[in-house]
Design brief:
Blueprint: E1 5-10, E2 15-20, H1 36-50, E3 56-59, E4 64-68, E5 72-73, E6 86-96, E7 109-110, E8 113-123, E9 135-137, E10 142-147, E11 150-155, E12 160-162, E13 168-172, E14 176-181, E15 188-190, E16 195-198, E17 204-209, E18 217-219, E19 237-241, E20 244-248, E21 257-259, E22 268-272, E23 275-279, E24 282-284, E25 289-292, E26 299-303, E27 310-315, E28 325-328, E29 335-339, E30 341-345, E31 348-353, E32 359-361, H2 369-373, E33 376-381, E34 386-391, E35 397-399, E36 401-405, E37 409-414, E38 420-422, E39 434-439, E40 443-448, E41 454-456, E42 458-462, E43 466-471, E44 477-479, E45 482-484, E46 502-507, E47 513-515, E48 518-520, E49 526-530, E50 537-539, E51 542-544, E52 549-552, E53 562-567
Parallel strand pairs: 4-6, 5-7, 6-8, 7-9, 8-10, 8-11, 9-12, 10-13, 11-14, 12-15, 13-16, 14-17, 15-18, 16-19, 17-20, 18-21, 19-22, 20-23, 21-24, 22-25, 23-26, 24-27, 25-28, 26-29, 27-30, 28-31, 29-32, 30-33, 31-34, 32-35, 33-36, 34-37, 35-38, 36-39, 37-40, 38-41, 39-42, 40-43, 41-44, 42-45, ...
Antiparallel strand pairs: 1-2, 3-4, 49-53, 52-53
Length: 568
Amino acid sequence: MNHIYKVVWSKARNCYMAVSEIAKGHGKSSGKEKSGKMILASLAVAALACGTTAYAAYDPSTNTDTLTNRMISTTRDNTEGDMHTYDHADRNLVINWNAQNGRGDGSAIRNANVNAKNITINADFEGNQWDDKGIISDSNFETNVTASGDITIRTHDDAVHTENYNGKMTIDGFKNLNITTTGAGFGVMDAGNGVFINGGAGSTVNISALTGERPAIGASLNTELAYYDPKYAMGTGITINADKIILSSPNASVASVYAGIGKNHDFKVNLNAKTVDLTDGILAEGGSTVSINPDIDGVVKITSSKENNSSIRAMVDKSTGKVSNVIINGNKGGTAQVLGEIEADDASVYINMTGAGSYIKSTATGNTTEDRLAKDVLLANGDKAKIKLDFSGNNSLIRGDMNATDGGVLDINASGDNFSIARSYTWDEPLRHGVLEADRKGTANLILTGNHNRIDGSLKAYYNGQINLKMSGNDAVFNGNMWTEIDTPKESPQHSRDDNAAIRAEFSGKNAQMKGDIVSREGHSQITADFSGENGKLTGDAKAIGTFEMTYDSRYPDKRFIRSLTIP
């Protein structure tokens, strides 16, 4: 490189300044070609005349251009040393941005194209909410940041930020993207027209919002105001493609991934990687969609937030009634491991778990008060609510209490062997309280077709709830009670058949065993237990207020082998 520096005239300082060859000048140079010796001489003269260092200093020993409080921007480049663009794919770029930047609403990169080998942005100071951001796109100009090596961004406020409805950003080509925010900032926030992050082969994206209450990625928290004023419906979504994605926000008030109310109430978060590790959960609301690995057979790990024990929460759009969706391993499948409650509030959650060892667990581990509050693992609440889990790998499990209520639907399908369901909160009467409950017209469907499947915990249907259990594999074990109640109050003079709560259980595989009691609590509620498989066995009592019928399987002389049992 023959031309490392150039000299520009500074109108503000009334002197020549030594700057990088890529810097923008605001005055006249001599207009003559200078030799290498003349440039070196000019550098010395400029330094003596102005008594300051260059804005953009090039270090040949590290092949690095360093900017200090000078930005790359097509819309804010109004100070000597600023640049419209940066295009040096073979060089490293460092931008140091501190409290003395004096730029008002500036940032290190704003509405510009940047191409370098490695890019580092340091803006870790508490500013005015704008000048302590990293990269901003807020106009019709699409910001593009490209690096063949690593991109490292550390800021106090948002590290990556789009706004004004049209701001759009692409970050691509990198090997490692490391984003850290230390204050009240998002790692990546879209209130504009989308953020697209595409890593190179073998790339890793690691985004952490360390201390503030903001998510690692997502829509502006102000979008919640769109329920009252449509102008706050902002952003279209965030897409990240890499080999590995790690997101965390340990102090977030909502979640690590937040899909809020976007334009047209259709904000989308798309994460695609062989390994996805989300700490502090997902929140989707306002008709939004979070999709993880629709076509990649990978491993997805999701851990709940500290605030509410929720790993995944999807909520209906309260203004339009549009259903929000969370979809994991949608088409191809993969391993999913979720720690914390999954809640669908008039919304939809679907997880396809083809990998062995997939699980859904609550955060409860024993019998403390904290465990009691954290014992729930699945909640489908509302007429539009649906949680569907497909387990096809072996040795998968659910640990925690499940509930379908107010018309919500739980669908759990397990075709792998050694699938198990059990409670995570234990006490003196572990079978009295349900591992699965359906109430107020909620419906739960459990279809378990693999061998050696097991359920430890009771089923309870009440207030017109419906539970359908089918265990068709061999050597199935159900260790718990079945309870029903009805919706009509006790003081009502008569009960309607429409008020029925019901449990229907089929054990059609060989050697199925149920250990527990079957109890119809009141009136017209109904339980049907069908032991049609060879050597099906019930160990326990069957009783109800009123009458009930037992049909024995005549093939077996032992009356404890019950083929079907109905309690009207």
